[in-house]
Amino acid sequence: MGSLYQQRFANLLDSLNAAVQAGEQFTLGYSAEHSQFVRFNHAKVRQAGLVSQASVHLRLVREGRQAEQQITLGDDAELDQRRLHDALAQLRQTLPLLAVDPYLNLDDSAWHSHSLLEQPLPELDEVLALVEREAADLDLVGIYAAGPICRGFASSFGAFGWHQANSFNFDWSLFHANGQAVKANYAGQAWSAEAFAARLRQAREQLAHLGRPAITLEPGSYRAYLAPAAMDEIAGMLCWGGFSAQALATGNSPLQRLYSGDAQLSPQVSFSEQISGSLSPAFSDEGSPRRDLLLIGEGRGLERLVSARSAAEFKLVANGADSHESPCALSLAPGNLPNAQILERLGTGLYISNLWYLNYSDLPAARMTGLTRFATFWVENGQIQGPVSTMRFDDSLYNLLGSQLEDLTQEREMILSTSTYGQRSTGSSHLPGALVKGLTLTL
Fold first, then answer.
1. Which residues, including other chains, have CB under 8 Å from residue 274's CB and lie 6 or more apart?
2. What does residue 438 show for φ and ψ, rounded to 5 degrees?
3. CB count, 10 Å around CB of 130?
4. Which GO terms describe its biological process (predicted)?
5. Digit-coded pLDDT (tens) for 368-405
């Protein structure tokens, strides 16, 4: 599939190169997927289908002005070329009407990048047989998505990038008869029936605990363990401008104090943008090569995500960040806590599987608020006592991953974005769980 799509992209590029006029520059972004989707209810297939789609994003530049258009592609190469040429003609007419873009900053290097991550995906029959064997008696509700995703980029300066990665993402919940639920996920590039079965069994064990009477806690500070899925919600908040050069330059980043040196996190905390080996392409949507970046090293703010526009506006050096300057492959270094010892080391406190509906309650202080949900348990002396009624937490990152952080787990979870808005996402995070001495619950 990859070679077919790459050839179609190359043909469109040849056609475009032949059509551009003197003084014009262009960039051409490409996106395609061939995805299998299966929706489950009560552990049975309720809906199944295939999505095969492709599109290109054409940007035309002349004399400091730029305009862009997206074109949906089909299976007719001739028709696709005509659509591309029509878009080029429209952009030509539009450009003279536009103002000069003061922050236009094209990468004029002829870089080349080629990545094929083609681990074989499981046969759908194998996945369905596993679900039948491990969960036939459960109220399992979820979506399985799998297949190759392609991204391409080319420019009139001779740059060319191609990226194809196979991946699967199974996102599901197990519902108890009392209406409570355990949320779980298994995703990656290399499928393991054993790992999937183990993840399902862990969710089944947690489901049994949800049958116990709910425990209501008073507001206060509690010792807590945050599972990787809960950490993913916190990390997701940091991606809202936390590492963005533009947000940091304009004082709108939640990590302003960290990057200015006025505050720091625990020395155990090192966040990276880990592009290499991830599902994300090694080039940005703006057409710059990406590299791995150490964003936070041993609790201190280091590199930031600099897009081409921010580089022009704030006189910085671009480092391949997308236009929105949000991490696409965020990785938090592991700690020393083995998964097998989590409950023992927690002792008495909260085991938090997921957090929900997060937002900033005080952005400059990196203070977040949100709800516990989906299998949060009260633990005493290393033993789960029962589920905890939904509570709101309100705490600062400088506490959770700073003064209150006791340890991070040795094992990390690869969490792929479940977003399918328009197309399947290539975003991911690679995160450990966190043991904290105190998490503030407010109501």
1. 292, 329, 330, 331, 430
2. -155, 130
3. 16
4. proteolysis
5. 999 998 899 999 999 999 999 999 999 999 999 999 99
